[in-house]
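Re: the 522-residue chain
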Amino acid sequence: MSHGAPAGGGAGGPQGGPDSPLQIDRTALESLAALLLEKVGLKITPDGYYGLRLAMQARMPALGLSDGQEYVRRLRQLAGETELRGLLPLVTVGKTEFFRDSRQFKALEHTLMPDMLTRARRAGRQVEIWSAGCATGEEPYSLGMVAVESGAMNGEVDIWATDLNPAAVEFAKEGLYPVRRMIGISEERIQRFFSLSATGYQVNPGVKEMIHFEGHNLAAPVFPHVFPATKDLILCRNVIIYFDQPTIRSLMDRFFDALRPGGVLLLGYSESLFRITSKFEMYEVDGTFAYRRPLLNEHPAPPPRPSAPPPPVSAPRPPSPMLTRRPTTGTFRIPVPSPSAPQPRPRPTESHRSPVERLDDVVRLIERGDFPQAMLAVRRLTDDHPEDLAALLTLGNVHALMGNSDEARDCFSRALRAEPLCVEARIYLGLATMQEGKLDEARSELQKALFLEPTLSLGHYLLAQVHEQKGDHEAARRSYRNAVSQRRFGQRALLGHYPELPGSTDAIAQAAQYRLAALSES
């Protein structure tokens, strides 16, 4: 589905109908919103109850429940934690809009759609597009409008739109949107592609007929209805940040196989295939970055060279003092470079380099301890690419390390507004509040991160640090043991950069074992 900030729209939205056995009243929606804020830090205002209702409609029948308040009571029980994790990917379904991400749609209008139509006509076939994570349908209908504006005739474009949430899919099939959902559409397009009814704006048949909607789980190991080398374009935006690295790799392999040679994959700006796969070639088109399956006579570009690897962790060496001792001042000491130290010159072609390349430069500056230059570089990056989540998180970390706590919090808040289930924002906010000496807040943020991703070894390790600083040695030992036990799970790389964090599961486990030994002697 298309994830993001909590759903826009009123407390209404699609209902089960007069024959529906589901009873979801305002009190149930308010109770669920309060639970999500408490457990996950996900703030949903009454404008977002539309998305909550969709999610409850999708999940309650699977548990045999018809009463919304009983469903929320189930979630509050210990046994409801698994269900709450299953609900979370559905909760943010409402954060989708027509023509979301103007740069990508500019590329679709000016280059991608016309090129796809030209190639398909030469080959005597349809253009096949997959909107993978279509939510309530705004993305595929936007694609249909662009296709018509690009001169597509009846039957020339086939758009397959899929989502995990069956209630969202049923809503999308109707193609009927209230006035508040029409933000982002020009008056000219509304006049051309919609008809006004008593209940909202109805998508016209000419666009609706080129789209077919289905329920589909992108995390499934097999896609039986997806045939090799058939798709010209796949959009999967703001979805993969919720998957672990093995799932992302597997999904990208399937996307690669599904695309025709020369076919294009569009991800969200907070998502990257850096260090995930080198099969695709990344290229710039009309001011946005896209991934392409190379043509048969071409080879994918080599993967970007990673930044300098972290130093090996030797067995007897204790973990970084940064993570094991609270400074007496409550803040971390950051080395400030000498004024006479040479400063790197900004590259004149900086805006033409990919966000990944530019962020690698920032990482190198951070690792050198040159925080002022790192700050300048990452600020320019976030100015040029405000939706790049990795850059925004790194900016927050640099602010935190330089003692700019308000600016750091603002960055992490912006990240959470963009992606409310962002585990990294919780982890880094936990680190920032830990270094401020606000241990209760740090514990709360880290617990929210671990609720979202229970197998995150680093999260358990940092939570143990907080417990240890609070003097709760039993809780610290428990969290350190949890950090060690997660070694059996694959650990994904976190978005954003923070220096001196253990760089591998083995390093985290080793550091945790060192602290366990120290606590047993105390």
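The domain at 321-521 is CATH 1.25.40.10 (Serine Threonine Protein Phosphatase 5, Tetratricopeptide repeat).
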